Amino acid sequence: MFSTPLTITIFGFGAFGKLAAALLAPHAHVSVFDKSCDARQAASELGFSIIRDVSDVHADVVVLAVPAQSLEQCLLDIAPHLREGQLVIDVCSIKEEPARLMRSHLPAHVEILASHPMFGPQSAMKGTADSQIVLCPIRGTRWRRLAAFLRQRLGFGIIVTTPEEHDRQTARSQGLTHLLAHAFATLGEHPRICTRSSELMSEAIALVAHDAPEVSDAIVLGNRHLAPLRESLISALSSFGETEVNKHSPAQTDGQPYEA
Question: InterPro entries this protein is in (predicted)?
Answer without folding.
Answer: 6-PGluconate_DH-like_C_sf, NAD(P)-bd_dom_sf, PDH_N, Preph/Arog_dehydrog, Prephen_DH
